[in-house]
Design goal:
The protein has 81 residues and is α+β, with helices and mostly antiparallel strands. It has a two-stranded antiparallel sheet. A two-stranded antiparallel sheet has the order 2-3. A hairpin with a 2-residue loop joins strand 2 and strand 3. Helix 2 packs antiparallel against helix 3. The chain is globular.
Length: 81
């Protein structure tokens, strides 16, 4: 199946994160916007929906499907970074 056809059939951030990791791209979860506010809970967040949810940010990026499943099962609406 062509990559573009497969990508078009994905429906969740988890599926996209797993797909990207299958291409060899390391991913990690980033905060998202909920009701107009960043999911980090800081009402004056300067980087809404654009900063890491993990403790070490980019250093936590991985292609490990087990880690990706854990992250996105915990927070399904997390952005993919």
């Amino acid at each position: 199946m062509a990559a573009s056809i497969m990508a078009a059939s994905l429906t969740s951030n988890l599926e996209y994160a797993l797909y990207y990791s299958s291409l060899g791209w390391e991913v990690f979860p980033a905060h998202t916007i909920r009701l107009g506010l960043c999911s980090c809970g800081n009402q004056s967040c300067k980087s809404q929906g654009k900063h890491p949810m993990t403790q070490h940010g980019l250093s936590d990026a991985t292609t490990n499907h087990k880690a990706i499943l854990k992250w996105w099962n915990k927070t399904p609406d997390a952005n993919i970074a």
